[in-house]
């Protein structure tokens, strides 16, 4: 399969790549109850890092910890070390700068209650870009890269929330790209999206991985197989194992549960 | 398979019974409103004229118009709004957008609920003690309006909080994940989408403030003043107090006069409420999600 070959080639390149996000012994809790405990892993630059696992495995909490959403979430506590580009994020006072460098796509598309144009121009405006010509350029480029431009170029001033679910999800991706992120985190982006749009977004992600690091939490095991260079398996608040995607899917696993989950023999 | 059993029959009868019962309750609810309005128009409609609205009372308040009271009410309500809206909206924003759910905010919430439950005459006495005497504003529009403002603060806070809470959390999370601060999020997404609810609360507050009598009686509203107020440190007449005075305190008032004053007061509140409803409908049409 084509994707597997691509994945293998990219793996070779990325094993030498510098570490983008390093996570050591991280435990995340809500009101004292652990949602994820003792996770250690590394995400390298320009790789697609997949995270698979059933519901309640702690996948979303993990993403929230990476961009310090704990500081905006009541009762959420993070222990352990998370380094972004070698900088420990837990002591960061400027969490806003960190979040600007990390684009996030949610399970359910969130079209902000403003026009399509404003949705994509928002992040640049927040970082002080106000010249119309410059914004126009950013909006066009981001919508283009999110494979949405052709569908919305004639109605940029209509409401983003009126788009279909699949279009809104691509709008969310365009919005994330407008931050010019170094890391793009996607949390089960295909959950509310039709299969055709899912494939289109996957194509978009394949284009993007040469420019940024992608962390892909997915409920579809095959999606991780298609896209991820390396994959982590989360289960019940633990990271069971992290491995080369091709190897994991070829059955070279350390833990039997990983194989069972991948083969769909779970529960 | 569709034949009606005894049980079905009973159920259908009970269903009809309750439906009728609830409908009667609704009628009962509307009745007093209609009777009040009808009586006011029937008995007081004859005194309403442009002259009535735009002249001062004469002949020991047994004749003439209500201009100083009307103007005074506008003063009192406006100054009260100027104080309570910024204060209440800011407090609501803090409580809903910044504060976590801890013992401190729970105590504040309790305080707000209790503030809403304090009788208006107690607010009046507080106003006398605090604004008239302690701060030395004397009996003035300022003291009366501040008393009104304190009294209506809970309404503003609760209405604002509710409309802030109605803005979906997902919008905030999307903004935060983009690196927006809480204030940027509030200004660009939360407030624009909560403004209709906030304004509704404000207008409700206006209509309530318009009718209040007790809090202004001792703090700034006067029995009779031949001149219009010129600053917030003047005393003033007010519609609500004027109604009380002409109906109970002054001998020889023609019967139609108090009804006329009451009609103007009720009309003012109704106009205010209609505006609020119209505005909400307009803004709902522009709702963006």
Stretches of chain B where pLDDT is under 50 for at least 5 consecutive residues are none
- Find the structural class of chain B using helix and strand composition: mainly alpha
Summed up, the helix count of chain B is: 11
Low-pLDDT runs of 5+ residues of chain A are 1-14
In percent terms, what proportion of residues of chain B is strand?
A: under 5%
Largest sheet of chain B: 2 strands, antiparallel
Order of strands across the widest beta sheet of chain A? Answer: 6-7-8-3-9-10
Strand content of chain A: 25-35%
Quaternary state reads heterodimer
Percent helix of chain B, as a range, is over 70%
Strand pairing plus helix content of chain A: what structural class?
alpha/beta
- Tell me the span between the first and last alpha carbons of chain B: 45 Å
How many helical elements of chain A?
A: 11
Total strands of chain A: the figure is: 10
Query: What's the CATH topology name of the domain at 66-238 in chain B?
Result: MetI-like fold
**Helical content band of chain A:** 25-40%
Characterize the overall form of chain B.
Answer: globular
Provide structural commentary.
The complex is a heterodimer of chains A (267) and B (289). Chain A is α/β, with parallel strands linked by helices. Chain A has a domain of 70 residues. Chain A contains 11 helices and 10 strands. In chain A, strands 6-7-8-3-9-10 form a 6-stranded mixed β-sheet, with helices on both faces. A 4-stranded antiparallel β-sheet of chain A has the order 2-1-4-5, with helices on one face. In chain A, a hairpin with a 2-residue loop joins strand 4 and strand 5. With 289 residues, chain B is an all-alpha fold. Chain B has a domain of 173 residues: MetI-like (MetI-like fold), CATH 1.10.3720.10. Chain B is 74% helix and 1% strand. Chain B contains 11 helices and 2 strands, in the order ααββααααααααα. A two-stranded antiparallel ribbon of chain B has the order 1-2. The two termini of chain B are 45 Å apart. The relative contact order of chain B is 0.14. The mean pLDDT of chain B is 89. At the A-B interface, helix 3, strand 6, helix 4 and helix 7 of A face helix 7 and helix 8 of B.
